[in-house]
Structures are given as C-alpha cells and as structure tokens.
Amino acid sequence: MNAERPEEAINEEAIEEESSEAEPELLEVMEEPEMAAGEAEAKAKENWERYLRAAAEVENVRKRAARDVENAHKFALERFGKELLAVKDGLEMALDASENASVESLLEGSQATLKLLGSTMERFGIQVVDPEGEPFDPELHEAISVQVSEDLEPGSVVTVVQKGYTLNGRLLRPALVIVAEA
Fold it and tell me: What is the pLDDT of residue 28?
C-alpha cells in the first residue's frame, strides 16, 4: 500500500525530471575526469620517457668523460716522449761517432744535445731552479750544508750542488745548495 501524499509525488516527479535532464551533463562531467586522467597518464608516460632518455644521456656523458680522462692519463706523456727521442738519437749518434771523433767534436755534440734537452724541457713547462747567489728559499731549495762567506749575505746560496726543477710552477726536485752563514 503505497499511500503517497501529493507533495511527495510532486517532488519525486521533479527529481525524476531533473535527473533525466541532468544525465547528459553528468555523463559529460564524468567523462571529463576520465579524459583528464588519460591526458595526465599520457603526459606522465611522455615525461617518464624523457627522463629515461636524459638519464641515458647523462650516463653516456659520464662514461665518455671517464674514457677521456683514462686516455689523458695514458697518453699524457706521448708528446714529451716523442721530443725526448731526438735527444736520445743525438746521444746514440755521439756514442757511435766517439771512436773516431776528437774531444772537441764530442764536447760540441754533448753541448748541443744538452741544449736540445733543455729546450725540450722548457717547451713542456719544466724550468731549472739554479739559485746561486740568491736568498735561500725552503720552498725551492734544500740546504745540505752551511759555509762561511764574506762575499754573500747570510742566508744566501753560496753553491748549487744539484739544480732543482719545477713543472708548471710545481716543484719536481729541490735544488741542493750550500747556504752562507755569518
């Protein structure tokens, strides 16, 4: 027994009319989130693919840089080694010619070879530290003895026992020196 009051019947009819009219709008509203979700999913997939490509590129750059550093370490002295071959060749020629050569020609050959070696070293940034008469510098010199000197100020280098060398401003070997004392 369905005893409805007239007010309720009107309300139910109004609700049914509204819902039948709202159904297309509701479907559109419901489709929009699905479309938005689909678009978001497509965008997320695109971004993920971009990320993977970027990560792969970064890894390739890292590997290439590591390979370049390894090759730089491996072949850093290649040019220097080629230049030293000329010095070695000069010394070998001097030894081969020493049986029939005069002392003067051997001396000239040795001086030329030493000059060639010195210029090769300079081209590669190796500088001689020869501090005779200069103030003692513990950064570049190693004092092996002290000697009384009337000609030089105390703390000056009297004699260089062994020359020192720097490579591009960095000490390779300190000069072994005798320092003046008062």
Answer: 53
